[in-house]
Amino acid sequence: MTGTPADEVSGTPSGTPADEASGAAGGAAGDGAVAVDAYLDCLDRVDADAATRLVLGLLDAGWSVADVLVDLVAEAQREIGRRWLTGRWSVAQEHAATHVSEQVVAAVARRIPVAGHRGHVVLACVEGEWHALAARIVAEVVRAGGWRVTFLGASVPPRHLVTYLHQTGPDAVLLSCVQPNRLTRAARMIEMCRSADVPVVAGGPGFGPDGRWAAAVGAMAWGASARDAVDLLERRFELASADAPAPPPGDEHVAVLRRRREVVQAVDLALAPGEDESELLAATVAQVLESLAASIRVGDPELVAEFVRWQRQTFAARRPLHDALLAACAAALTEHPQATRYLELARRTD
């Protein structure tokens, strides 16, 4: 990419941020790729004002709320994630860019007229899940579709969620999960929602490619995008009459989670990390065990294997440590045959 996307869209080599944003909005109205590039340039400069002008200009040019939030903001955030994953951006840069997008989503939300004639939806992130921007985007797209939406935000404790459901009696719950290692918590939340007779529509990559693990943890449907959520909510009565999911085949996943502290200590003793690495090792082992428990819960070893792939990609230099870490975890869990088998398969993954 040469030059700045905002300059390319506006057709001028320089100018004020306001000129760039208004020019970008005008040129990007008919070209989604150009719009994403222009928006990414705003994020790169951490220019919330320019990003907001760009997006509101697109709304004025005829883009829908779903168009700007799903095809522009969410798409740009995926690129931001790739930049962090490949080491091009630091955590600080990713956080700064995400904060800009949060301000943009808030500005778009102020453009949505009050409606709510289709019913009431509660949207929450799984307990322990702190990535809330994607869920907020879903909330605003659903609200633009005519629903009254109560967004409970990140990391909602299950008991607080179900209490709120009893107090408000919504038509459905939209549950967001970005990380698959949170699926055991998602299962608990979904079970409590169902006990309150409220159907759950799942969303987010945490439920697996194409939502393959959503049904296994009790969700009545899964949507890949905010647009899918709107479509699925139209079928809420059909969702509410769906059969209950089959119970998990056993409770080995529970045993793995209960032994988390013990396994962390065993791995620390086996690997003897340096003082500056001990905390990172403990956190990594805890994440592996959460992924392992979720993998057992849904009956698919690919879940923990995919987590290991992601870890190896993120911390490429630590692959030997990961192999030793997985072996040490397996040694500490020898009395749990499914856990040790899944860990062995994960060690073999590329």
Automatic annotation (TrEMBL):
Keywords from the named record: Cobalt, Metal-binding
Superkingdom of the organism of origin: Bacteria
Residue stretches making up the B12-binding domain: 118-240
UniProt-listed Pfam families: B12-binding (PF02310), B12-binding_2 (PF02607)
Keyword GTP-binding: no
PANTHER family listed in its UniProt record: METHIONINE SYNTHASE
Protein name: Cobalamin-dependent protein
Organism, scientific name: Micromonospora cathayae
Lineage: Bacteria, Bacillati, Actinomycetota, Actinomycetes, Micromonosporales
